[in-house]
């Protein structure tokens, strides 16, 4: 048997040649178009996180998302329903009356409950979104939808989309940081990048460890690490030359460089001992009840100062099915002073005007009692709020019905919320797309209405 042709691998055609030579070359034309589009998406200064121009003038440069996991009760915090107070009673009644008194706050007269005495002093900075809605009353689905815009499929998170669209102004820190995120109800998918390049996914930090575990190399000096990294990067860049439009390779190169820089930047940025005692008290670091979330908030301010584009903080445990007053008061106390301190600190540093704060959970609570004086899940009407970043302070936008059961005015669904956040950052939610699996994807899917009425 003549094996000459079997061993002559030089005659084996390449995939590109095959596409060129078959089907009248139409396969090659399609491939060329996809390759050009891929190259255009990845065209930059060589750093995927380099700052990018917004679609139009932005009101905000960065976002701090204060996520209250579990679904905080709007009826006992930021949505005053006089009729519920009139007809409601205790745990044995048909409706549960608000468990805290409400009072008009600030010059705007926003009605905020006594559960937030410190935050109430910042009422004129808050824009209450009382007409929020989401599709699903289940924790897992609602949490994932809030973070990614889709409760059924794995999609990039809001922070990943924002960082993809705008890059980052932080040279030595990630563009997207999440502090103490939840590990269930979607877990890492809530700050993941899905089909977007991995460069844009969130970096998880710990408030307890003040940063990242194992941030320092215990065996190699900085100089030796640099030599080692340079050796690896030379190989990576050789590979990149063979496929210059490959975002995965470029992302790997930049991730390695960023990780090296973070060894010095993260400990320095998150060293809260550099703050004055007055500032630490402002965030409640001197009180055991508020110290943990206060640490998150102070870390967020320091990250914002360094140019991090999207920062998420998490307070869990707001799923109050019983003993609403005691349970809600405990969580509100832990977060009230830190959040008020964050707003005041950003304002005095002239950062609040271009920093968008977003507060809220995955849904709200029912008007009726549930399990010994608590409240069940309510996805049909609840409250979130924004502050700074180009929104009107002292504004109540939207409302629920007289008992707080369902949004009836100024309705904002999840896609509407995301479209509004992107717009404040100078991004058109319909133009911010990524081509994957044969079509263009976007955070807001095929819907989303911007709430222009809340803009200052």
From TrEMBL:
Pfam families registered for this protein in UniProt: DUF1501
Protein name: Sulfatase
Originating species: Gimesia panareensis
């Amino acid at each position: 048997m003549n094996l000459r042709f079997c061993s002559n691998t030089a005659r084996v055609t390449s995939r590109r040649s095959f596409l060129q030579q078959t089907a009248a070359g139409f396969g090659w034309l399609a491939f060329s178009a996809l390759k050009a589009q891929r190259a255009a998406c990845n065209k930059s200064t060589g750093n995927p996180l380099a700052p990018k121009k917004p679609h139009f003038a932005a009101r905000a440069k960065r976002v701090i998302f204060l996520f209250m996991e579990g679904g905080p009760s709007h009826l006992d915090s930021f949505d005053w329903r006089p009729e519920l107070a009139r007809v409601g009673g205790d745990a044995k009644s048909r409706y549960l009356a608000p468990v805290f008194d409400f009072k008009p706050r600030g010059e705007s007269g926003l009605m905020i409950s006594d559960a937030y005495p410190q935050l109430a002093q910042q009422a004129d900075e808050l824009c209450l979104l009382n007409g929020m809605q989401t599709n699903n009353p289940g924790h897992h689905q609602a949490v994932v939808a809030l973070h990614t815009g889709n409760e059924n499929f794995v999609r990039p998170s809001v922070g990943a989309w924002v960082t993809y669209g705008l890059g980052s102004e932080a040279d030595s820190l990630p563009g997207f940081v999440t502090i103490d995120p939840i590990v269930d109800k979607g877990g890492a998918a809530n700050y993941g990048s899905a089909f977007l390049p991995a460069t844009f996914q969130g970096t998880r930090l710990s408030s307890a460890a003040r940063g990242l575990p194992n941030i320092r190399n215990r065996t190699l000096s900085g100089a030796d690490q640099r030599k080692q990294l340079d050796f690896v990067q030379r190989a990576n860049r050789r590979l990149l030359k063979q496929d210059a439009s490959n975002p995965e390779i470029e992302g790997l190169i930049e991730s390695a460089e960023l990780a090296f820089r973070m060894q010095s930047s993260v400990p320095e940025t998150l060293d809260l001992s550099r703050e004055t005692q007055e500032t630490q008290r402002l965030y409640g670091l001197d009180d055991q009840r508020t110290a943990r979330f206060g640490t998150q908030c102070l870390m967020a301010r320091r990250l914002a100062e360094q140019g991090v584009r999207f920062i998420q903080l998490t307070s869990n445990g707001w799923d109050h099915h019983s003993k609403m007053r005691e349970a809600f008061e405990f969580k509100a106390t832990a977060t009230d002073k830190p959040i008020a301190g964050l707003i005041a600190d950003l304002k005095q540093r002239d950062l609040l005007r271009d920093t968008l704060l977003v507060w809220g959970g995955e849904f709200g609570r029912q008007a009726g009692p549930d399990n010994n004086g608590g409240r069940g899940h309510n996805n049909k009407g609840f409250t979130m709020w924004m502050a700074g970043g180009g929104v009107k302070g002292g504004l109540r936008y939207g409302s629920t019905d007289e008992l707080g059961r369902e949004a009836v005015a100024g309705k904002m669904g999840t896609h509407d919320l995301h479209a509004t956040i992107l717009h404040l950052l100078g991004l058109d939610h319909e133009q911010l797309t990524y081509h994957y699996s044969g079509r263009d994807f976007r955070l807001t899917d095929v819907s989303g209405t911007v709430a222009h009425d809340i803009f200052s």
